[in-house]
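W.,

You were right to be curious about this one. When I first looked at the sequence I had no strong expectations either way, so I just let the prediction run and decided to look at it fresh. Below is the sequence, 192 residues in total, followed by the output.
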Amino acid sequence: MVKRLLLLTILFFTSTVFAAEPKLRGYDEYQIPSGYNIPIMSLQEFSTAYCEEGENLNFITTSDIYIYETNIIPKGTRLTGYIDKKNEPVKGTNASMKVFINKMYLPDGFEIPIKGYIYTPNDNLIGGELTPPAKWHKMPHYQRWTMFRAMGVLQYVPGGERRMGEHVTISSGANLTMVLIAPINMTHTLIN
């Protein structure tokens, strides 16, 4: 009798242990695709004149990012990054730099790794434009109006030399756009 009772209690406890599943927190996973543009604002001034490669930079988002009705990235989310590549000014070309953004801190302090660059149409390179010509030359351009009479116009054309390049500076509070180069899988969202 004792053996049967012991056997029944063991079967009862093992069946309840294996039958009870842990209760998991319900959540939705959202994915922000690569190539997505996020409007941000610079929290500090940075320039090719006095900043070096690897220097840390801070930004914040300037608007809420929604997927369906869920606010995925709230306004004021802090982003950090660094100067990934820097080119000094040379004769004919202004200075340039690439800024890589690697972390996002939600307002509750949760940290998410991301991969993105400050977007520019020039392959995400801030600056790097051609400088104006150093000299302009006068050159006549002739047009024939009559059979034996040639009339000309004296025009200025750029010379072969260009001016020395200048440093590029992004001011504090500048509105910029970050483009994602890898998708963000958001499993942590803030609940109001």
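Here's what jumped out at me. The longest strand covers residues 78-87. And, maybe more interesting for your project: The mean pLDDT is 84.

Coffee later to discuss?

I.
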